[in-house]
Write a structure and sequence with these properties.
Number of helices: 20
Largest sheet: 8 strands, mixed
Bound molecules: nicotinamide-adenine-dinucleotide
Strand content: 5-15%
Structural class: alpha/beta
Length: 501
Amino acid sequence: MSMAITKETAVLVVGAGIMGAGIAQIAAQAGHTVFLFDTKDHAAAEAKAKLATTLEGLVSKGKLDASAAEQAIARIQPLSELAKASSAGLVVEAIIENLDVKRGLFRQLEILLGKEAILATNTSSISVTAIANGLQYPERLVGMHFFNPVPLMKLVEVVSGLQTQPAVAEAIFELSKAWGKVPVYARSTPGFIVNRIARPYYAENLALLHEQSVQPYVLDACLRAVGFRMGPCELMDLIGLDTNYSVTRSVYEANFFDKRYVPSAVQRDLVDGGLFGRKSGQGFYDYREAAVKPEIAHFTPATMPAANKVQVQGNCAVAQYLVDALTTAKVNFTHLPESAWTGLSLDEAELRLTDGRPASQLGKELAVFDLPVSKQQGQPLAFAVSNRASTELAEYAATWLRFLGFNPQLMADSPALIVARTLAMLINEAADAVQQGVCSAAGADAAMKLGVNYPAGPFEWLAGWDAGKIVQLLDHLDAFYRGERYRVSPWLRHKAWQEAA
Ligand code: NAD
């Protein structure tokens, strides 16, 4: 059968809530007749009226042609009963997130619609394979996972279940492009691409908070320095702690309680206490009137601290940054590119780039600093000192970091600090997703940049780092915590061997 979906194909959108209304809007703007149905009385008509206001707003801002808006609105037909949609060639379902209800709906739709109709679900967490179970033609059901707000977010995950016919996924892929979206293929597995790969962004930082290693505003500042629009804590506050917790739990449960995805007691406590973030007025931060959001101190440059002998160790990009900074500052130093570690030797003290081992494990007069990702002057950068260091070392290390152009943030001596730990785990999760056939590396990068606005994709970070060093860092985390959480993805380990050869 021919699978192409054209402008002439009528689209049935079931569920006229946040997502359904957005999907109806873009389908109508793309030229389709759109039937909109919701079990709640008047919901479809109200959604249409609201869309009309939205589109008129765009017209008055000069962002949309008046006749285009009028035509799009005219194409949306709210229905009082599903039976009136029998001519639809495509259904996009955006109803309540419940397996039995979704299954029931699709079974009903199968009877109503032609055999050729494609059935798409916008589920964000339910298995597409499971929704298709019991259908007469399960091969025509596919996931079409949009992101909120639908008209603005470019990403669509095109999710195939075990029985989804490739031509059906391809038709939805092409349609998404025609609707101005960037589709990415995904295999139906817990969290699909984005909601899975993003887990460590929350989990690793919640783990640091659980250990009392650092304050939320410091975590947030350090990750914003990487280019994330929001740090993990402010992002969880925005998403809603309850919503984020429920996605985490669903991925954890769907993975047979794999320790990798274990939810955090820190988050559970906030949820139990009704501290949902912005929407409730309090979460990691206080949003009530007169509350002041804590911020890290501004960057202040420093002059060179005393040191008779300055050596740069290592030859990676960070070592090169140190070489360049010292050269620019006209410091007398030697460079030992063959060194097994990266950082600075400063008389009796060492300032090392984290390799995943805490400073206390590595030496006495020793500090470790986090992975600097940007080259921006004054970027916040976490560091930690050995539990046997002299009382002066923290200040000495901080002054060196300021002299080198960083805004140092002292934290507890946690393995892999903040940025290195978070990025390594994001890369590891993405590597596992590719290993398990969930998506391609390019698909993962596109999905994370478009679905959650990451400044780069995990495989782009990998390309700018070093697979061997990431594996080593994760192995050190694994050795420190001794659990399943930091196990290295087979894909990443193989990549490291390949690069070392
Ligand atoms: P919503 O609560 O805003 O809207 C759901 C609508 O479906 C409601 O109007 C409800 O009356 C209607 N409904 C419920 N059962 C129905 C049925 N059997 N038949 C017809 N209508 C029914 O929810 P939403 O946020 O738009 O989410 C809808 C779906 O999209 C869910 O599967 C959700 O997981 C998924 N999703 C949500 C987001 C998001 O950020 N909100 C993002 C991606 C995917």
